[in-house]
Amino acid sequence: MVRYLGGLEPKYANVVELQQYATFDEGCVLAHMVEQQMKPRPLKKPPSQDQPFNKGAPFLSPHL
Prior knowledge:
It contains three helices and no strands. It is an all-alpha fold.
C-alpha cells in the first residue's frame, strides 16, 4: 500500500492516508473515491441568449 500511495498525487495520497481501510482493495477503492470527489467539475454552460430563460411562461410587461 505504501508503494501505491507513493504513486498517487500527493493531494489524494494525503487524504487516503488519513482514512481507515483494512485491505489493499479497500485502499484502492478509497483512493479512487477521493480522486473522483476532488476532481474539478466543469462549469455548467449558461443558457444561450437566443432562447428565453423561462420559455414556458408568458412574457409580462414591466409597465402593466
